[in-house]
Amino acid sequence: MTADARTVAGRRVAVLGTGTMGAPIARNLLRAGMHVRVWNRTPAKAEGLLAEGALLASSPAAAAADADVLITMLTDGDAVEQVMTGPDGALSALPPDAIWVQMSTVGVEWADRLADLAARHRVAFVDAPVSGSSQPAENGQLVVLAAGARSARSRLEPVFEVLGRQILWLEHVGDGSRLKLALNNWLSVLVEGMAETLTLSSALGLNPHLFVATIAGGPLASPYATAKATAMMDADFAPGFPLQHAAKDATLAAEAAHHSGVELPLTAALLDRWQRAIASGHGHDDVASAITVSPAPPTVSATAEPTPGSAPGEGLVRAEPSRERRRGQLMVAPCRDRAG
Ligand SMILES: NC(=O)c1ccc[n+]([C@@H]2O[C@H](COP(=O)([O-])OP(=O)(O)OC[C@H]3O[C@@H](n4cnc5c(N)ncnc54)[C@H](OP(=O)(O)O)[C@@H]3O)[C@@H](O)[C@H]2O)c1
After folding, report:
1. Is the beta carbon of 89 within 6 A of some atom in ligand 1?
2. Given a cut of 60, is residue 189 above it in pLDDT?
3. In which domain, by residue range, is 75 found?
4. Which end of the chain has less Cβ packing within 10 Å, N or C?
5. Is 335 within a domain?
6. Domain of 75: which CATH number?
């Protein structure tokens, strides 16, 4: 029976990389009834999936051996190449009619290199990075930015539908990786803009919640930036999207821009700050931890938060400059130590 004729429930999918994104992807495929083999460089991190029905492969080749679809969800292009090539690499064992779906964020140059690698091995290749972090991945609510052979589309759609709320089929292989860089460049600027604006609000003696409450529901609001603002003010840096991956993507965007003859000054500036946050130990924390670079990040007491249903700004009084502030410090109402 060909993969086209199989039901979704019968699909055999190999997932290489069971990190923050790969694990929920594998879990959702299992819940849809597919046969899933997983491989992870650190096997212990994949073991939780066994109870959900996954088979743990001893090598990328063993995971790939009978796959209809092989998904790579690894840190970067180097990691993907290592896992796909070599004696135990997945390409040595992938069946000829299988499709390789490359979902890691690898940038433009690596997307082209990996497409060439697939072509040399006569393997159908679909460049399909995703937008959305750990929670959308858990909920099957990713946005899949796919491009590849038209013949692969009908076979992949049932798989993608399990993973995402939106599937964009783009014209040229690599366009998904290009769009992903554009999306993550926007994300970077939003996060850094929010971090600096909260710091500014605080420095001006305002409760930073006032800024967030004032933009809520209006054209300046962004649900993503608002969620990051809350994380920043709560100093809650549990990783959804780790800062080191965000910095990797911002670097890929800056490099791609440079190769295309333009520069990204905002991205270059935020990268400089984010590298400092990473150097001080925030690489594995959420991208919201970018705010820790500010000399005195805003910290507010929970009692200063607006009550549900209040109008923007209602219940928020302008913070009186504290004695510390009059001495030149920026804290509004220090209530707890911040991570980092
Ligand atoms: N997290 C997000 O919000 C998000 C959203 C969209 C896209 N992405 C992208 O999705 C990709 C995966 O992200 P993630 O958050 O799942 O990352 P992660 O949790 O850090 O997991 C990375 C995975 O790559 C593996 N890996 C790294 N280097 C390797 C190597 N040299 N050889 C073999 N395996 C290697 C890791 O194995 P070990 O477990 O052994 O370390 C792990 O399985 C990245 O490209 C990221 O930019 C992430």
Report:
1. no
2. yes
3. 8-173
4. N
5. no
6. 3.40.50.720
